[in-house]
Amino acid sequence: MASNEGFLTEEQREMLKIATQNAEILSSSPKSPTPKSPTSLVSENHIKVPAGGKAPTAGIAVRHVRRSHSGKSVRVKKDGGGGKGTWGKLLDTDGQSHIDQNDPNYDSGEEPYQLVGSTVCDPLDEYKKAVVSIIEEYFSTGDVELAASDLRELGSSEYHPYFVKRLVSIAMDRHDKEKEMASVLLSALYADVISSAQISQGFLILLDSADDLAVDILDAVDILALFIARAVVDDILPPVFLTRAKKTLLESSKGFQVIQTAEKSYLSAPHHAELVERRWGGSTHITVEEVKKKIAELLREYVESGDTPEACRCIRELGVSFFHHEVVKRALVLAMEIRTAEPLILKLLKEAAEEGLISTSQMVKGFARLAESLDDLALDIPAAKTLFQSLVPRAIAEGWLDASFLKSSGENGEVGDKDDEKVRRYKEEVVTIIHEYFLSDDIPELIRNLEDLGAPKFNPIFLKKLITLAMDRKNREKEMASVLLSALHFEIFSTEDIVNGFVMLLESAEDTALDILDASNELAYFLARAVIDDVLAPLNLEEIGSRLASNCSGSETVHMARSLIAARHAGERILRCWGGGTGWAVEDAKDKILKLLEEYESGGVVSEACQCIRDLGMPFFNHEVVKKALVMAMEKKNDRMLDLLQECFSEGLITINQMTKGFTRIKDGLDDLALDIPNAGEKFNFYVEYAKKKGWLLLSFASSADASLTPAAAS
C-alpha cells in the first residue's frame, strides 16, 4: 500500500478529491495549460507526507515548492507566477495582450479605464468667480452695456445680491474712479437685470460683512455709507431701507455705524444730492440730476417744436439707455400737465419704442414708476389717476407698452373689513402703539412698529384711531397727531389711505360727538391742517365731501375746513391752532425767507438760495417763498427772482400746488399791493403768463382780471 504520497489522513484525502475535480474542469477549458496530475495539485496545495508514512499534523503549512520540467525544485513566485521552466500564472497567455486602435474589431469598451476623482462644484462659488471677471473687465473698459449683457448671459439671477456685494466690495478697495463706475453700473442694472429687492439684499449682505471689510479697508464705514447714500440719491434704494436695515443690525456693529453715517453725514447734509454725486469726482458720464434736467428741457422743447426726429436724436445723444424710464415717466407727467401736448407726447413715445430707442423693459419701468407716484402727483394734478388709467390701455393697444404691465400692476389696496377678528386685533395693537407715541414722541419707533404689523391695508383704520384718540386729549397730543400724519404720508401712507381714513372719521362724526362735544370743529381743524401740511390737496376735500351724505354732520365739517383754509393768513392760524409744533416758527421762517431772497437779489448764487429754502424744512410753507419772491420782483423791477423760482420748480423744491398757492395769495392781495406798486396788476399778469409757459401753473389758473371777486367771496 506504500506509495510516493505516503499515508493520507481523512482531511488530506478530501482535499485530494477536490483537487482532482478541479483538474478535470481545467482540462476541459480550451485556454487551460496541460492538465496537472492530482498529486501535483496536492503539492501546490502544500500537502506533503514524509517518507516514513506519518502524516503531518493538520494545520501546519509547508513551504511553497514546485517541481520544474527538469526535476529541479523551483521556488514559486507570489500569486503563482512562474519562474524559469514553470507554467506561470493560471490565466497567463504566451504573449502580452495589446489593443490596437487601428484593428477593425477595435472596441473602446475594452480599453483599461481609471476612476478620476472630481470635486462637486458649488453653483454660488462658480457664480462668484465668474462675476469677478465681469467686474474687472468693466473697470477696464467702462462698457456698461457689455457688463449688463455678460451678467444676463451668466444667468443664476437668484445670486444677483452677491454681484452687488462683490461689485461694491471690490470698488471700495480701489480709486474714486472705480467707486463712481460701480455706482453708475448699479443704476444701469437696476430693474433691467437686478431687481430692487436684490439690490436691497446685496446692501444688507454688505452691512452684515462691514466688520470684516473694516479689517482690510480702514475707512470702510465711511465708504460703504457713501455707497448707500448714493444708491438712495440715484433712486435704486428706497429711503426706508435705512430704517429697515437698522432693525437687522446690532448697535455695536460696523453695519449700524454705516447706516448712521449715511443718515447724518450724507443724506441730511445741505446740498446732499450734489455732495453725494460729486464726492468721487462726478459721474463717469453725467450725473443723475443733470440727466433729469436735460430730459425735462428736451421734452419742453419738443412740445414747443413738435419735431419728433430731433427729440429722438436728443434722447439718443444722452447716452443713458439704462435711464430711459425717466424719459417715459417725465413725458407722461408732461402729457398730464399740458393736456394739449398729449398727442405729441404719445407720438414721441410710440416712435421711440418702434425704433428700439426705448426698450420694452424701460417703457414698462417708466409706466410702473409713474403708477407708484400717482398719489403724490394727484396733489398737483387732481385727475392724474384717471388720465393714467386712460393712457395705459391706449399704449398697449398701439403696441408700444407690453401687456405684462397690467399683470405687474394689477394689485389693489382696497381696505376691507371681511375678517372682523383681524380688524379687532389690529385696533388693539395700534391703540397701544399710539399711546406709546404720545408718551415718547418717537416717530421712527412708531413707523417701525407699524411696519412690523404688516397690515398696510388697515392704514385708514390707524388714521381714524389716531385722530379719535388725539381729539379726546390735550392740544399737545393733537399737534403730535398732525405732525405724525405728515411723517406717515412721507414714509408709508398713500394719499388714498389718508382720504379713506378721513372719510371713515367723518362718517362716524355724529357718534364721535356723543363722547367729544367739539368733535366737528376739531375734525375741521385736522382736515385743514392736513391741507396746509400738503398731506392732502384742496381738491381732496371735494373728493371726501362727495363720498358723504349731503345733509350729514361730516359734510358740514368738510365745509368748515374749506372756510378755514380760505380765510386770510389761514396757514399761520391753522399751524398755531394747537399752540406749538412747527407753527411757532412761522414768523421766524418769514424773516429767514425775506433775508435769503434779499441776499440772492443782491448777487447771490441760485444753488445757495435753493439750499437755504430746503434747509428751512417747511415744504408746506414754500408758497410764502413764491409770494415774497414775486413781490420783491415787482418792487425791485428785477426779474432775477423768476430764475430762482424756475430753479426751485425744476428741482421739485416748490411744487405746482405751492406755486399756485403763492400766486393765489398775491392775487388776493393785489388791491393792497397796488397802493405801493401802481403797476402791480400788470406785472402780476405778466408773471402768471410766464409761469403758465414754464409749467409752474396750470393753464386754468385765473389772472388778476378775475381776482376782483375773490376777496369778497372769501369774506
From TrEMBL:
This is Putative programmed cell death protein 4. Residues 66-75 have a biased composition (Basic residues). Keywords: Cytoplasm, Nucleus, Repeat, Translation regulation. Residues 91-101 have a biased composition (Basic and acidic residues). SUPFAM superfamilies: ARM repeat. Residues 126-247, 290-411, 425-546, 588-707 form the MI domain. One of its GO terms (molecular function) is ribosome binding. The keyword Cell membrane does not apply. The lineage of its organism: Eukaryota, Viridiplantae, Streptophyta, Embryophyta, Tracheophyta. Belongs to the PDCD4 family. PANTHER family: PROGRAMMED CELL DEATH 4, PROGRAMMED CELL DEATH PROTEIN 4. It comes from the Eukaryota.
